[in-house]
Amino acid sequence: MSTHPNTALGISLNVTASVLFALMFAYTSLLGTLAGTEIYGWRIVLTIPCLTLFIWLKGNWSQVVVIYRRFYQERFFFLTRILSSFLIGIQLWLFMWAPSHGYGLDVSLGYFMMPISMVIVGRIAFKEQMSRFQQLSCIFAVLGILNLLASSQTLAWPTLLICLGYPIYFWLRQKTKTNNIGGLWFDMMLSLPVVFSLSCKAVSSQKAYLKAHIRFGSFQDLD
């Protein structure tokens, strides 16, 4: 059986996802009326129903059920899910927050460095082997990273948070055997309390701003 159609489809989907990923990162800077935290909140709120529908259509709901049962069967499993949700949540928040706060290039550098840190974690933690072609690819990637670091001459905290945080997140999911779409669904669901809390604070701040703006405008009219 030929695997060429699957390979071509995989490459096409990968490129499409990368383009959409870049567009989503770029348009956040155009949403000037929304703070990065609010954009992050809306992203989570809109992602969960879409992800739920996708899991149901693909027939992968059993993965969600298996993980749900583990909450009652394993003593510290809930804590690992909270940690996993926090690790991915901080990454998704940073992705939405950075463009409007002048850290866009630093975040891009972090994503550029992340594959190398993933390779290191895979090699050390899981004893994964690489082919010669993969080793050559890593060498070129390292050279590209060194070139970027030499030109920028700085390594900001968003860069480190991404290139170090994501490998820890994926390592945790691998170790807890939740490295599937069901695990991602629980990560999104467990972040909802934080999302709602941040959204309520944002709405309260906007109401206070509007009231102050209206009062200030009324005083100007009296003058």
TrEMBL record:
It comes from the Bacteria. This is Chloramphenicol-sensitive protein. GO terms for cellular component: plasma membrane. It is a multi-pass membrane protein. Keywords: Cell membrane, Membrane, Transmembrane, Transmembrane helix, Transport. It comes from Acinetobacter johnsonii. Belongs to the EamA transporter family. The chain crosses the membrane at residues 7-27, 39-57, 78-97, 109-126, 184-204. Coiled coil: none annotated. SUPFAM superfamilies: Multidrug resistance efflux transporter EmrE. It is found in: Cell membrane. InterPro entries: EmrE-like, RarD. NCBIfam families: rarD (TIGR00688).
